[in-house]
Amino acid sequence: MRKNVLFIFTLLAVLLCFGAPARAMYVPDYEKVTAQELKYAENFYKNLKIDTSQFAKGKYSIYIPKVDTWNYSVVVQLEKYDQDLSFKGYRSIYVTLDPNGVGMGPGGVTMTGWLYDADINAIRVRISSFNTGYIIADEMWIYNRKDKTFRYLPFTERIYPGKDALGNPCWTNDNGLTVTKDGILVYIGTDGINKPFSDVSKKHWAFNTINNVYKNGYIKGYSDGRFKPAGNITRAEFAAMLNKLLSDKYPAGRTADNTGIFDSFPSGHWAYNAVYSLTGYMDRAEALGIFGSRFEPDRQITREEVVALVHAALKNHPGFAGAGSGTASVKDLQSSRFPDSVEFSLRHGIVSGYPDGTFRPAGRITRAEAAAVLNRLMALVQS
């Protein structure tokens, strides 16, 4: 399970209050809900209060905030997980909130009750639109009975990567249900809603590109919620991303076993298996020609190394048999170590040059540019 931001809330007082807005909300139906609905959900979680001081005695207490202008359908689930966060069971409490007094009325009340199982150690609060049925937000907190701490559990710790019946990448949540790829973590920032990363605004040239690649599971951000689009990317990071995409889209293309060709590449490195899996798409000589005998996984990858990897992996793919329809007229083509790879990627629209007519082959590729490469490959590569 992927790791993300961990918000540790220690029980310094009997009542645990979320005094500041949630840094992120998981919004499964984010393309269908309105900005107003998300704003209400943000305010709801801001004012939600959960008392876990009586958990050891089998009791819970949850303050449900008020609503004032439209209908909420709130589900509170008391859930049970093992140490590996594997889901073991739950009990749901349905609450309808309405300013006109339907259901529990407008909120502003404290729900108390008994846990149905002594091992209950998590609380999930899901908000839906009473009128449309769309899930607006789905948040969860987990209680550690051993040290009596209570922390926010990010959605990324509640999902498992997998594939659907057609072989497409998808996520499965902790209840065993397939999670829509449109579901993202939404960061509430200065420019509004629907941001999977706090530092990529809707005005960024790669906003949609980064979102799309993220939703398909080929990139991820940092633990502080940032993507760092202008930051550089290492050889290991790009190799792992490209390998994941090719493994999903073009598994039959991996025909070679080049394990161990790089000197001093420790088998304990996090990207060891991904790197050698990627080299399975190319000849030994091609892999060594790109990186030499030492892979140096933490070295920043260059633009020409990116296109060389893509070229070596895909040149025999039937979708790239032709010359391509794009232009390859960049001024510095012949200054590259891999001019054929640069031309291949330009002609097939995988990369583009700069406005001044250069490609800058030895330049470092940014994380946003790497996302753009993956996004274009997603559309071009099929198994």
TrEMBL record:
Transmembrane segments: none annotated. Pfam families: SLH. It comes from the Bacteria. InterPro entries: Cell_Envelope_Struct_Comp (IPR051465), SLH_dom (IPR001119). Keywords: Repeat, Signal. Residues 193-256, 258-324, 325-383 form the SLH domain. Residues 1-24 form the signal peptide. This is S-layer protein. The lineage of its organism: Bacteria, Bacillati, Bacillota, Clostridia, Eubacteriales.
